[in-house]
Input
Amino acid sequence: MIWAVLILAVGVIGAGVSIWQHLGLSARARSWANAWNRGGVGEDVVLIHLPCISALAITGSTAFGLVPEQTVAWTIIGGLFLLTCVVYPLLVILPTPSFIKPKWYRESRPKKRTAGKK
Output
């Protein structure tokens, strides 16, 4: 039971950090989007890994430690856990979808220059 609570706490903290970075309300929260890591590890960690690992920690600790088995809540939370287990590897393998990227991040991207135009 104590391990489930600790894992839940880590998942909630990770989710909080992920939401803070995704909203980007401060310069510190937007620092991951610097030009040097655009499309690199920084983007993947903030947009895919941290949210998915947090979701796995929250749903896993809840389904397998805090909610009584064979109940409706257990079935729903366990289903969310399994759904995250399926979606997470797909998000790692496939290119990052644009709907996952925050609006401020998409708008801050440098405009593509067309060849021959000044």
The chain has five helices and no strands. The helical segments are 2-23, 27-30, 41-66, 72-93, 103-107.
